[in-house]
Amino acid sequence: TIEFVTRAAEAIDEAAGGRYGLGGPRVSTPTDSEAEGLLTAALPALRGALLADADGVVLEVDRSPEAVAFASAARTPEVSQVGAPCPDHLINTRHKPLVVEWEPGSDGASGLRDAFRRGVEQYAAWYRDYYERNVSDESRPFARDPAGPRVVIVPGLGIVTSGADARRARVTRDLYHRAIAVEDAADALGGFSSLSEAEAFAIEYWPLERFKLAQAPPAGELAGRVALVTGGASGIGRAAARRLAELGAQVAVADLNADGAAGVAGEIAARHGHRRSLAVEMDVTDEEAVDDVFRRIVLAYGGLDVLVCSAGIATSAPVTETTLEDWERSYAVLARGYFLSAR
Description:
Blueprint: H1 2-15, H2 32-51, E1 58-62, H3 65-72, H4 76-79, H5 90-93, E2 98-99, H6 108-134, E3 151-154, E4 158-163, H7 166-188, H8 197-204, H9 207-214, E5 226-230, H10 235-246, E6 250-255, H11 258-272, E7 277-281, H12 287-301, E8 306-309, H13 324-342
Parallel strand pairs: 2-3, 5-6, 5-8, 6-7
Antiparallel strand pairs: 1-4, 3-4
Helix pairs in contact: 1-7, 2-6, 2-12
C-alpha cells in the first residue's frame, strides 16, 4: 500500500508541475541547530502531555525537507484537517493530525512547550467527542484508544509522530510522509478530499481489526518507556540494558567504550526490533558530553523515564600506594559522573 500510494503521489505531483508546499511558506524555518535546540527543550512537554492518557509513548521527529515544507506551508492548517488520504493509514495516523498553534521566533522554547500542552489538551477533547459521536453497539465493546494525536505538525520545525513504541512511531511517520505527498499533489490539482468522519471512525474501530489487535501478546511492563544506562557496554550495565529491553523499554546504551555500547545496542535491536536501542558514546565526567547524550535521547525518543547509573571503575591498591591521579579519577567517575547524570 505504501509503495502504491508513494508512486501515485509522485505521478500526480509531476503532472502538477512539481508544485510543492501547499501555497508556499507561511512561517520562517529555523536553522538545524536552532530547530534541534527548540525540540530538545520542548519535546518532553509534548510527550508528557501525551502520557496523561497513555501508558507509554515514544516520539519520532521528521525534519526531512518534505516534512518541514509541509509543516510550514500556508494551506497546511486547512488541508491537513480534511482527513487521511488512505483508509489503511487511519489505524496509525488517525483521521486528522494536530497542527500546533506556534510560530518560530514568537515565544521560543517556552512558547512551544505551552503550545504542545494546549494543543494536546484540545485535540484529546476533540477525540473523546469524536469517539462518543460515532461509537456504535458494534464498536463500543472495544476500548477507546488514548485520545492524544498520533501526528503533530509543528510550523517551521517539521512533523512529530507518536506510537506505543518506537516501531509504531516510525510506521506512523512513514505513512504520514506518504500522506504529505498525496495531499500536496491533490491540492495542486484542484482539491483534496477524504472520508467523512463517520466513515473514518468505522475503519478506525472496525471490529475485525480491533479483534485482531486484541489477540496480540500483552505489552511489557516498560512498553513505551525510555531508559538510559550509563556504563552499558559491560557488566552490570549491560545486564540492566538487556533486562530493560526485555521489559519493553527503548534503551539508550551509553559508555566511554563506543564500540562496546554499539555492540550491546545492536544485540538489543536484533532481538527486540529496530529503534528499540540507541548507542551513545558518553564520558560521564564531562558535563557537556552528558548534556549532549540527554539531548540525543530526547531527539530520538522524546524524553526519558528511567536512568540507571552504572558507569564505574575500580582500583586495587593500598591507600598508601594510591596516587592522587587514581583518587581524582575514581572521584570523577563515581561521584561527579553520578551527579551530572542524575541532575
